[in-house]
Amino acid sequence: MKTLIIFTLIGLLFSCKESASDNTTTSVDQESDNLSSQIINSKIVDLTYDYSEETIFWVTAKEFELEEVAYGETDNGFFYSANNFCMAEHGGTHIDAPIHFAKGKQSVDEIPLKQIIGTGIKIDVSKNASKNTDYLVTINDLKQWEQQTGRIPDNSIILLYTGHSSNYPDKEKYLGTSARGTEAIKDLHFPGLSPEAAEWLTKERKVKAVGIDTPSIDYGQSSDFKSHVILLTENIPAFENVANMNQLPDTGFTIIALPIKIKGGSGGPLRIIAIL
Ligand SMILES: [Zn+2]
Q1: Cβ count near 33 (within 10 Å)
Q2: Where is the signal peptide (predicted)?
Q3: What residues contact 233, with CB distance under 8 A and at least 6 apart?
Q4: Which of 38, 175, 192, 270 could be stapled to 95 by a disulfide with Cβ–Cβ 3.0 to 4.6 Å?
Q5: What residues does CATH 3.50.30.50 cover in the chain?
Q6: Are 175 and 220 in contact (CB under 8 A)?
Q7: How remote is the CA of residue 4 from the centroid of ligand 1, in Å?
Q8: Residue 51: which of 1, 116, 108 has the closest Cα?
């Protein structure tokens, strides 16, 4: 994914260099020129954790495994490196596609790109969440943000910053337990979005997606995953284990969140960036 984005950016950069010295520059070239130079000259924050043995997965999910296939000089005189990897869809920084909790809704390959690219806003609830690991983001938190910043813009991507990400990748602190398996589920403790606030976002505001810096959009002690059901039923994807939100302002950035395109997938690894 990283390679794809870099190649796209490099491609845009080179095409604009050519067009700059070319009198026959078309308006399309100028557009890409403007867009690529805007992106290149912006601060870009990577909101993605890397995948390694440390990566945090749900306690019942298959963790990340990397198997080396080749690394070194070949007999033909060139260097060659390649690996196999294996993991659950839901682990590390990832997307929950609507079908994850809503039958018949979009799978990860079906999510329209314009749904996961858009104006980002950060709602900082870290003050409240720091006092309570089981904190639930309330409607009041959302309204308070609006009082200070203005109405949540239509079609925005909402990032909920609980500050819980400061515990990553310490499993004991971040998940509430370092144990694994179904037995460990009862010991999960981390903040999430309250079902009431999820409902309010879907009914009272128009949002494209909701992200959070914890393992799940529902808090650790949830057993009915209501906020998942509410958001995903409305085809609003969730981003989980979002990294580096502390580097974002409350408003004034664009989110690009591109997941791996698994046909029929319920979610998958997500490369999410903010362009400031
Ligand atoms: Zn998930």
Answers
A1: 19
A2: 1-20
A3: 98, 101, 102, 105
A4: 270
A5: 46-61+89-275
A6: yes
A7: 23
A8: 1
pTM > 0.70: yes or no: yes
User: What is the distance in A from the centroid of ligand 1 to the CA of 79?
Assistant: 37
Residues 6+ apart with CB under 8 A from 37: 16
Question: Are the CB atoms for 216 and 183 separated by under 8 Å?
Answer: no
Q: Tokens at residue 242, please?
A: 């979002």
Q: Give the per-residue pLDDT at 29.
A: 64
Dist CA 4 CA 212 (whole Å): 25
Taking the centre of ligand 1 as the mean of its atom positions, its distance from the CA of residue 266, in whole angstroms, is: 8
State in Å: Cα 236 to ligand 1 middle: 13
* Angle, CA 190 vertex, CA 274 and CA 180 arms, to 5°: 105
Long-range contacts of 172-179 (CB under 8 A, 24+ apart): 174/56, 174/214, 174/215, 175/56, 175/59, 175/215, 175/220, 176/133, 176/220, 177/59, 179/59
The Å distance, Cα 150 to ligand 1 centre, comes to 30
Ligand 1 centroid to 268 CA: how many Å?
8
**At the top level of CATH, which class does the domain 46-61+89-275 belong to?**
alpha beta
The 3-state DSSP class for residue 225 equals: coil
46-66 pLDDT per residue, tens: 999 999 999 999 999 999 999
Question: Encoding tokens for residue 160?
Answer: 């909920």
- For residue 20 the two structure tokens come to 């700059």
Q: Which residue has the tokens 């203005």?
A: 150
Which phi and psi angles does 106 have, rounded to 5°? -60, 135
Q: What backbone phi and psi angles, to 5 degrees, belong to 107?
A: -85, 175
